[in-house]
Amino acid sequence: MIGVTEATEPEADEVTGVLNTPEEWRVFLERYGELYVKVRADEEELVDLLDDDQLEVLDRGGRVEQWLGAAPAAEEALVRSEERLGVRFPPSLRGFFLASDGWTRLDDYVDGVHPCGRVVWMRDSAAGGRVIDIYASIPDNEEIVELFRRSVEIARGEDFWLLDPTDVGPDGEWAAYAFAPKYGDPTKYPSFSALFRSGYADMEEDEEDEEDEEDMD
Predict the structure, then answer these.
(1) Cα separation values, 39 from 68, 129, 170, 197, 207, Å
(2) The pTM is what?
(3) pLDDT score, position 165
(4) 169 φ, ψ to 5°?
């Protein structure tokens, strides 16, 4: 039987603090892009993302700002997506889309956050439907299969990011899940914001480790 793992992080406030407004998201995403370029992007990605001047700055240890998202979604487009799915998105997801209609690089095994027009029920996506069929064929998986069937797929690659509109916190946020089919157990977060920030926290730790190593040299 597959279970659900609750996300636990040492810096709980940093990871679970909810980003609601487009302005808050914009500041956070700018820093996320800078960190991704510095500690996570491989050489091939860097060549795709940066021009020669930026690569030179990065090689010298300088800061390179890189926007890895899109233009903000229009409120009308956001409402159309909500009407298509029959829901109203939670505050942190709405704020995200009004700052950037999707995201192209993540510190996770997902390709990026879907634009609001491509957000879909997991049961209706080709990859999501296949996963549901596989898990439904395994005995004692009813609970996790029901989670998949009622969840919205917000990001996908090798892994999935899911939001459960039936599990709503007092702040209006939906429970969020990172799900890796390779390992089976979804990891639960209190909000889309917390899920997104978990990767940011990992990159911050790597940045600190790199700086410590440089200080020791």
Answers:
(1) 15, 34, 35, 15, 6
(2) 0.87
(3) 98
(4) -80, 175
